[in-house]
Amino acid sequence: MTSYAAAGVDIEAGDRAVELMKSRVARSRRPEVVDDASGFAGLFDASAFLRYRRPLLATSTDGVGTKVMLAQRLGKHDTIGIDLVGMVVDDLVVCGAEPLFMTDYIACGKVVPERIADIVGGVAEGCRLAGCALVGGETAEHPGAMGPDEYDLAGAGTGVVEADEMLGPDRVVPGDVVLGLASSGVHSNGYSLVRHVIRTAGLGLEQDLPELGRTLGEELLEPTRIYSLDCLALIRETEVHALSHITGGGLAANLSRSLPGTVDALLDRNSWTPPAIFDVLAGRGGVPQEEMDKTFNLGVGMCAIVPAAEADKALALLTGRGLPAWVLGEVVAGEGRARFRQ
């Protein structure tokens, strides 16, 4: 008999996945979320914006890239959603916006309810860590287009910032200090190069590496650190001129986006020690420093540019919140580039 199920789409499995994820999604709820009985849309009470003089909505969308392939190979699906949230909300916070809510989209070859619930549970946990709500999403089964164990995910987020409090390059001046905020590892960028190194160096994901103190797979699936609440606290309690989320393209390229054309950021490579995973990738894969610089965060997941007089206060705040941070460099007259000291 010809049917949707015969074509490879299991509606009942999709319904079971929704039931399994409900309690996890509920943990990300904010008071502004309004229930839509039909479930077709996520609702957010916009009267919350009445306390703003001129609220600007900020939006961002992203995915996790080929890191999902490692999650699939290792059969671990409960943290990849945290990576997704980090990629989205920490782009939002760069302009000073508070992340409010997210939606997600999962495409898969076959709906396995427990696996989908793990993925969405990770998204919900990431939203909880970011202080935003997961208000909806979609899971689509694509038999024939994807293998039964394959999936990909993407998400979109919305935030709000007061217009006259928006951060950006126009606030940055010579004499400012660049703070580095530690990453939790590779985060979610550069995994095509990571997988190339694994193949060419003959490394195994289940292989214990003494320099890491755990398996390579465990290290590479370490979830992306989410900075939004830390950055919002920094904005509230100190003077912040700009932020930069260090993702694809590396430290210098991303930081340059937060600089005006009249200054440079001089960075001190000796101010921090990158996590051991980057030495593994460079050494085992024969990846030159220039390529490492433009591909990975090298241990710096976010940068904050603050007045020099605020640097100690900012560092104390971040350290008190359990986030390692340090003085990474300084802002000088220049042409809008971030670069390492020679």
From TrEMBL:
<dbReference type="GO" id="GO:0005524">
    <property type="term" value="F:ATP binding"/>
</dbReference>
<dbReference type="InterPro" id="IPR004733">
    <property type="entry name" value="PurM_cligase"/>
</dbReference>
<keyword id="KW-0658">Purine biosynthesis</keyword>
<dbReference type="InterPro" id="IPR010918">
    <property type="entry name" value="PurM-like_C_dom"/>
</dbReference>
<dbReference type="GO" id="GO:0004637">
    <property type="term" value="F:phosphoribosylamine-glycine ligase activity"/>
</dbReference>
<keyword id="KW-0547">Nucleotide-binding</keyword>
<dbReference type="GO" id="GO:0046084">
    <property type="term" value="P:adenine biosynthetic process"/>
</dbReference>
<protein>
    <recommendedName>
        <fullName>Phosphoribosylformylglycinamidine cyclo-ligase</fullName>
        <ecNumber>6.3.3.1</ecNumber>
    </recommendedName>
</protein>
<dbReference type="Pfam" id="PF00586">
    <property type="entry name" value="AIRS"/>
</dbReference>
<dbReference type="GO" id="GO:0004641">
    <property type="term" value="F:phosphoribosylformylglycinamidine cyclo-ligase activity"/>
</dbReference>
<dbReference type="InterPro" id="IPR036921">
    <property type="entry name" value="PurM-like_N_sf"/>
</dbReference>
<comment type="pathway">
    <text>Purine metabolism; IMP biosynthesis via de novo pathway; 5-amino-1-(5-phospho-D-ribosyl)imidazole from N(2)-formyl-N(1)-(5-phospho-D-ribosyl)glycinamide: step 2/2.</text>
</comment>
<keyword id="KW-0963">Cytoplasm</keyword>
<feature type="domain" description="PurM-like C-terminal">
    <location>
        <begin position="174"/>
        <end position="336"/>
    </location>
</feature>
<comment type="similarity">
    <text>Belongs to the AIR synthase family.</text>
</comment>
<keyword id="KW-0436">Ligase</keyword>
<dbReference type="InterPro" id="IPR036676">
    <property type="entry name" value="PurM-like_C_sf"/>
</dbReference>
<dbReference type="Pfam" id="PF02769">
    <property type="entry name" value="AIRS_C"/>
</dbReference>
<dbReference type="GO" id="GO:0006189">
    <property type="term" value="P:'de novo' IMP biosynthetic process"/>
</dbReference>
<keyword id="KW-0067">ATP-binding</keyword>
<feature type="domain" description="PurM-like N-terminal">
    <location>
        <begin position="55"/>
        <end position="161"/>
    </location>
</feature>
<dbReference type="InterPro" id="IPR016188">
    <property type="entry name" value="PurM-like_N"/>
</dbReference>
<dbReference type="GO" id="GO:0005829">
    <property type="term" value="C:cytosol"/>
</dbReference>
